């Protein structure tokens, strides 16, 4: 009985913390403008939302790997990637120089209070989401080389 109760508790906590709809959270662009996360997803268009931080090596590797093939993804599917930095007030000043140096062609947003990260129930970064019609249709934590190709297969699956 204890095992069943433990499994049920684990299941409920997992379901409770995994968000299926995009939360309504105000994010800031690197230029200081405010945008609500609900406005990122446009009708019937798949978007990628990647939570990352300047201090997160796997995050940087993932965004670098995607950057190399992002233009092809856009040409084939029209997908748009929003890179949401979860850097706090101590490290957020590193974001703009880093993205300028990397030459990433993503829309970069800032979640310095981690409101968006908390609303998604994201314990760690990187966290990559596919969103269509404000519904999270795919969710992946962590990064290993080649994961960008699996992500692209999911983008194509949901773009049809």
UniProtKB/TrEMBL annotation:
Keywords: Redox-active center, Signal. Residues 1-18 form the signal peptide. Pfam families: AhpC-TSA. It comes from Aequorivita lipolytica. Residues 16-160 form the Thioredoxin domain. GO terms for molecular function: antioxidant activity; oxidoreductase activity. InterPro entries: AhpC/TSA, Thioredoxin-like_sf, Thioredoxin_CS, Thioredoxin_domain, Thioredoxin_ResA/DsbE_sf. This is TlpA family protein disulfide reductase. Transmembrane segments: none annotated.
């Amino acid at each position: 009985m204890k095992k069943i109760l433990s499994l049920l508790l684990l299941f409920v906590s997992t379901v409770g913390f995994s968000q299926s709809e995009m939360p309504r959270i105000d994010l800031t662009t690197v230029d200081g403008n405010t945008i609500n996360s609900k406005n990122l997803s446009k009708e019937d268009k798949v978007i990628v939302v990647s939570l990352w931080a300047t201090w997160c090596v796997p995050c940087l590797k993932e965004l670098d790997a995607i950057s190399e093939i992002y233009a092809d993804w856009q040409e084939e599917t029209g997908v748009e990637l929003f890179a949401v930095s979860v850097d706090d007030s101590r490290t957020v000043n590193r974001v703009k120089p880093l993205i300028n140096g990397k030459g990433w062609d993503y829309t970069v947003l800032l979640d310095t209070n981690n409101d968006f990260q908390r609303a998604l129930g994201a314990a760690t970064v990187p966290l990559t989401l596919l969103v269509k019609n404000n519904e999270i249709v795919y969710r992946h934590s962590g990064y290993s080389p080649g994961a960008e190709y699996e992500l692209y297969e999911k983008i194509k699956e949901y773009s049809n």
